[in-house]
Amino acid sequence: MNAQLLFLFKSLFWMLVFLGRPTTQQQHRQQQHGVKLGSILKGNAFTTVWNAPTELCSKRYNISLDLNIFDIVINPNECFCGDNMTIFYHTQLGYYPYIDEHGALKNGGVPQSGDLVGHLDKAREDIRAKIKGKDFEGLAVIDWEEWRPQWSRNWGKKDEYRKESKTKVKHAHPSWPEDLVAKEAQKEFDKSARDFMEQTARVGQSERPGGLWGYYLFPDCYNYDYNKTGPEYTGQCPDVERVRNDQLLWLWNSSTALYPSIYLERPLKSTKYVRKFVHHRVKEAMRVASMPKPGSIIPVLVYARIVYTYTLDFLSQVDLMHSVGETVSQGASGIILWGDHLYAKSADNCRAVKAYVDNILGPYLINVTAAAKLCSEALCEAHGRCVRKHPASTAHLHLNPASFRIVAPGASADRRRGRWQDRVVGQLHRSDVRDMKEAFRCQCYAGWEGAHCELPMGRKRMSACHVALHNCWVVGLLLFL
């Protein structure tokens, strides 16, 4: 009898071990779902990155923005190129074909006339020169805006790329009718545009595999019709644009991060359209981010500005909430605050930027960053970020003012030594956690799964059968003893 029980015990033990071990297929699934996370994103529920050339404020006017005390990630010297983030404009990466403002064809003008091989070789050189460290784990943004990789989206000023493409086909086939010329031109353009963008991103990942590579303004929502529709503006992405984004799956597959934009024009200032505009743009980006690897989300870092475009008019408090706050609540990995040379053009401009950062932007960023972190810990075991249960809701990840307060930075001598966490005073109460649970759910980081992100990916094995076998093993052991 004891021999039989021993055999049963051993059989159940090894069966349990086998069931608890990920299969080769599951391990492959884990690898597939392993979305890259740059070092500035790891373990952070929300990350803010500063992408403005404000180092001149300190150098010229002795005005330091002290961004670090607000948990804002910056490059050394607050420049566009560094360990945390590097941006490549169209003249800085390879031989990008485009038509300049004078109508001159540069590097072939259109993608199908470009030298792809030469471009990729030059791109490798440019990447190595601009990102020195092979262990780079920051954001790598390619800003190519001269043409779009889909024929159908090159309207307005970008129609010149369609015209040049048709001219090229006409020269090769002068007897062809217009419809055939247009069809062939579209085919050539779309294929070559894809080759340039897809292979450039692949080269970037090959040269600096730890970086988060993607294209600025992709995906776009094309919900700019607030000036035309007025009170009827919904902010929704047109159906045709969602379909076109679906057709760009090849681009999402070749990207390791997405960089959409929510820049606000001055006519939107403090209007009811801001939230609609931002909401649907971020929503579309999050939808696209889930397409390449089902069950996983590519990091989404949303480009925003602290001013209305082409001005030094700073965002109102309500617009800050409807842009940054909306981005946090939809589960984006972070936000990139872009700015131009205007910020540091004069001492007055530097003082204005500093005042806005100190009094409005900074405290709000501390608020949402702390709220996102606390929600992640309370609901998601710190292995995921909180996102709205109902996308259309207006719930925000904000600290409850009855439970927390934010302490203003002290004298300038103490500012650089402080951590943003030290400026949040208070504790999370049961009612706060209850409110979070009612409005938010978990979106797990790469490598984790479960309703609360409590399980390592591939270990979701404790099924009813597994539990039953475990119980049998325990009973067998007791009988044997």
From TrEMBL:
It is found in: Secreted. Its EC number is 3.2.1.35. GO terms for biological process: carbohydrate metabolic process; hyaluronan catabolic process. The active site is at E145. GO terms for cellular component: cytoplasmic vesicle; extracellular region. Glycans are attached at N367. Keywords: Disulfide bond, Glycosidase, Hydrolase, Secreted, Signal. Its main location: secreted. Transmembrane segments: none annotated. Gene3D superfamilies: Aldolase class I. Disulfide bonds join C57-C350, C221-C237, C375-C386, C380-C442, C444-C453. It catalyses: Random hydrolysis of (1->4)-linkages between N-acetyl-beta-D-glucosamine and D-glucuronate residues in hyaluronate. GO terms for molecular function: hyalurononglucosaminidase activity. Residues 1-20 form the signal peptide. It holds the Pfam family Glyco_hydro_56. Monomer. Belongs to the glycosyl hydrolase 56 family. This is Hyaluronidase. It comes from Petromyzon marinus (Sea lamprey).
